[in-house]
Each structure stands twice: as structure tokens, then as C-alpha cells.
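User: Run a structure prediction on this.
Assistant: Running it now.
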Amino acid sequence: MAETQSIGAFLDDLASERSTPGGGGAAAISGAMGAALVSMVCNLTIGKPKYVEVEAELKEVLAESERLRAELTTAIGDDVKAFDAVMGAYGLPKGETDDEKAARTAKIQAALKEATDVPLECARLCAEVVKLSKVVAHKGNLNVVSDAGVAVQSAYAGLMSAALNVRVNAKSIKDRDFAEERLAELEELLSEARSETKLIYGVVKDKLG
């Protein structure tokens, strides 16, 4: 998805018979929406006399949320490239000699590793958005605290979705040390984000009354 592409055009692409963009792109968009909502809460808090004590902190949060939004937007294209590389590797001639077969297998495995690392990075970014959501849920403008709740849910949805793409590629990787290392990190991200999301959502609900 190009930054200039409309939401409607992206959704049309997502709904088409093409394989990309797919779930990986959707995961990144979910995370980017969460980051954008964190930015929104910051922008509607900064400059308000009532929140002067947290202004400096929220300016830092805003800078981070905008960085994450940009990186997650870029991750949409990264996911397409990684998927296309896997499909390209599987599409290579199977070869006749052992060397040719080994070369094809090596390219497939390299592509699968990249296709595992790309959604894992998306998951990391989404986890960072979850953490930023906590700050704006506690300290942001009360008038838009519901948006902080939507932010954390969007980021968590992106993380959970990216996790599926990590798993589907990791299972086909022959280098099990590589795969298990990625899966272990993923589980850690999911565990922490799961509890954080529940807590943050609870904070927002309590503030809404």
C-alpha cells in the first residue's frame, strides 16, 4: 500500500483474487491505526492548560507514535515483498542434479526466514504501540480517552494477526534453532501485550464511567 493510496483502493486490493496484499498487510494497517490514534490523543492533549504537567511526556510519545506509524505503513510493502519472494522461490525449477535441488531448497529456506522476520518485526512494532497506548490512556485528554482504548485494541489485533504469519512460515523452516528463537520471542511479545491490553482497556472503561 502506497502512502498515497486511498483506504478504499487498499481494501479493493485486499478483497481481490490476488494473494497480496493479504493478512500481513492488514496486520500492519491495524498497528498503524493504533499508532495514529495514539498520536491523535497526544495532539488533542498537548497545548491544553489542564494537561500542562504531562505535555512534555506526551510530546515524546507523539514522536514515537509517529515513528511507529511510518514504520508500520512501510511494513505493508515489506510483507508483499517477503511473500512474493517465497512464491518466487517455490516457483523455481526443481532441478535435476543434487546441487540444483539444494540451491532451490536454500533459496526457499532463505525466503521463508525473511517471511518470518518481516511479520515478527510488525509484531514488535505493534507491541510498542500497545505500550504507548497505556500512557495516553492514563494521561491523555479525558474527552478522547475512548480513542486510547481503540488504539490499544487495534495495536493488539495487529500483533495477534502478525503472529499468525510468523507461525505459518516458521513451521516450514528446517533451521529449527532459528524458528524456535523467533517463536519464543513472539510468545513473550504476546504474553506481555495480552495482559497490558486487558489492563489498558479496563482503565479506559473505568474513565468512561
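Helices lie at 7-15, 23-43, 55-90, 98-139, 145-170, 176-208.
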